[in-house]
Amino acid sequence: MTETNTGKGNRVRALVYGDVDLNIIDGSAIWAQAMVQALHEAGVEATLVLKAQVRTDRLVAPLERLPGVTVRRRPEDATGPLSAEAAAQLLTELDAAEPYDLIVVRGRRLAVRVTATPLAGRLWTYLTDVPQNAAEMAARPNKGVRGELAAVAKASRFLLCQTEELRCFLEGMLHKAAGKCVLFPPVVVVPEGLEPAADHTPGRPLKLVYTGKFAPRWNTYEMTALPRRLAARGVDAELHMVGDKIHNDRTDPGFSRRMRVALESTPGLVWHGGHPRAEAMRVTSTCDIGLSWRHPDLDASLELSTKVLEMGGLGVPVVLNRTPMHENLLGSDYPLFANTEDEVVDVLAEAAGPATYAEARDRCLRAAREFTLQAAAGRLRGYLRQALPPAPKGAGPTKVVVAGHDLKFFTRLLDHLRSLPNVEVRVDQWPGLGKHDPEVSQEMASWADVVVCEWCGPNAIWYSEWLKKNGRPDQRLVVRLHRFELYGAWPGRLDIDAVDQVVCVSPHYADLTRKMTGWPADKVTVIPNWVDDAQFGRAKLPGAEHHLGFIGLAPWRKRLDLAVDVLERLRRDDPRFTLFIKSKLPWDLPWIWNRSEERERFEALFHRIRRSPLLASGVVFDPAGPDVASWLRRVGFVLSTSDDESFHLAPAEGMASGAVPALLPWEGSDRIYDPHWIHDDPAAMADAIAAVVAEGRWEEERARANEEVRRSYALDLVCDRWAELVLTRSSDGAAGRTPTTCPAPTPSA
Fold it and tell me: Which chain positions lie within coiled-coil regions (predicted)?
């Protein structure tokens, strides 16, 4: 497989298509407008392709006035809106004529159709029309959806997720989505000159407002009864409704007629009809309280209403259902949560009072600040830096081969090398540790300026021998060595004279490598493991401070038994402490389970857990998988109790997630992690964890840990070190055999 990056112009160019009709003002149409506005704000040249002919330019006209934005309208003689197939073909043709740096698409049907086109790899896919839970995903009507979504994930550079809940769901359902899911929540753009509404003035009618479509599950018909019901409670109220799309529901044929009659004739109700978004927001700003109360069927939705955020940004507090997502947004004690019509009436009557109203208004205003156009542009700039990093200064075309049988620890580094301008990357994928196609490897070796061997195994031996005999003077060979190989026979067979640099992940293992192999000291350097701090930086779930996390329990030297000792000591005083273990089980690993000593130890440990009153209800086993970032949301402390490790990534991932690391001392641990996190024994570890929680220091400690990992092991820092190592040039401009030293990160004081 060959992937090439070419030089880019001064501005990044994006092609945008949503499988939505911008003539209808709803959340999906507003998304298309906001996406283009955010790209423009981020400095991107954007081309928006419309699905349907323009019948009203309420959303399109503001975009056409933006410099650097092109709107491709449907021809006037076009026959209807674009189908998903036609849209995929059109996007491919536009890109072929003048290639774009990224292609933003919304809509599952369309996304599926572009996975097999040349657009794959540059897709930024926004998914909303997907099953919202595991049961829906497994339902018969959705048979095949998981496979389609997996293909979309594989072809996408990013999957743009509206909410954290959707991101975690996709990562749990689709392993190919892990590491690609990034947040792009709804964007609130307040029209220029429109200020947040003033506080409600007691004594005048309470003005309620709803904007959007009229549909049964949106409870819009039930809303029309609110002025009457509030009047019975002594509250004078008006209801203002904006929108012109009345849903025809097959399960309730009479809904459309009832809804229209209510809009046209209900006392205390003002129907404003359809309006441009700016006018709808102006109407909203003159009201006191917004309505986003919906049928319970929608409580499990993984999408966040744009209308809620717009109203919040205008200083109009919103009545909405109590759900975990809404509690995360506004706080569990937000005063305007309501799930039934009676509860809606109750909270509205209460909100007529100034104290409750002021608290709700302040919560909504603060929440909306995270969803501004400026915040969205900032997110996009970060994703653009990750997907399209600037070229290293002075770099010319460099051909890089990455060779190995298992690249799971190198994936993001490989992505980074592929994304660099003027770098061409090829992968020599070996089917097994010692299995490969010699003809393919010879072709790769002849072509490359730099070869990177992931694992110091048969692949490194083969490339060192071939380059020693046939290589050019300007070619370089870099080998990454893990603990696994150091204790094998391969390093002794490696021709170190043909190797420019051996990379270890920790200072201790670099020293051990020099000692055990006798290789020249300057050929062995340290570049630590990477942690995708942006992916792991997610809000913790309630109760996380009492949850311990343990990742990977096999082989026995990981010492899960010591982690269980820690849990047992903690639960003697506080049964809220729970140990979550994310791992394959030992009997799922034949190389473990077939060894009698390993099997007997694990059997004894599981017997202990089952029989102990303290432990039986305090240990949770979760399946292994790449969705570690979402799993860590529930974890407040990540344990490392191993007998030995070369680096042990789990504590670093925990630190990036906002958890506190807790380690027992293994050789070299204090050269990777601050000794502050290292404890003498399980009892000391348990006592330290209990003290952090009891003394209210958890927030302080996790902030310290997060700062440490960002300073030393953040993905962008490690990627830069690898790029410097791989792309080092000799004085004549060619890739040369000059070792690059990458100093090991130092723990914080």
Answer: none
Q: Which CATH class is domain 537-713?
A: alpha beta
The arrangement of strands across the sheet holding 69-72 comes to 69-72, 45-49, 13-18, 102-106, 123-126, 156-161, 181-183
Predicted pLDDT at 392 = 57
> Structure pTM?
0.79
Strands (E), 332-456: 398-404, 423-429, 450-454
Assign 3-state DSSP to the chain and report helix, strand, coil percentages, each to 5: 45, 15, 40
Residues 6 or more apart in contact with residue 629 via CB below 8 angstroms: 171, 178, 532, 535, 536, 538, 653, 657
Strand, helix or coil at 423? strand
Q: Is 571 helix (H, G, I), strand (E, B) or coil?
A: helix
Helix axes 649-657, 698-712, angle to 10 degrees: 120
CA distance 649 to 510: 17
User: Where exactly does CATH 3.40.50.2000 map onto the chain?
Assistant: 2-183, 206-366, 537-713
Rounded CA-CA distance 246/687 in Å is 61
| 283 beta partners | none
* Three-class HEC string of 146-209: HHHHHHHHHHEEEEEECCHHHHHHHHHHCHHHCCCEEECCCCECCCCCCCCCCCCCCCCCEEEE
- Give yes or no for residue 738 having a pLDDT over 70: no
Residue 608 corresponds to which tokens in the numbers above?
């202990």
Q: At what angle do helices 438-447 and 458-470 cross, to 10 degrees?
A: 60
| Statement: residue 277 has pLDDT above 80 | no
CA angle 113-117-122, nearest 5°? 100
CATH code for residues 389-530: 3.40.50.2300
C-beta of residue 20 within 8 angstroms of C-beta of residue 51: yes
CATH number of 2-183: 3.40.50.2000
Topology of the domain covering 206-366: Rossmann fold (3.40.50)
For residue 28, the 8-state DSSP code is: H
Tokens 């709700």 belong to residue:
360
Give the model confidence (pLDDT) of 419-453 as tens digits.
888 899 999 999 999 999 999 999 999 999 999 99
**CA gap 68, 13 in Å, rounded:** 9
Q: Token pair 């097994």 is at which residue? A: 432
For residue 697, what are its two tokens?
């220091």
pLDDT tens by residue, 38-83 = 999 999 999 999 999 888 887 898 899 999 999 999 887 788 899 9
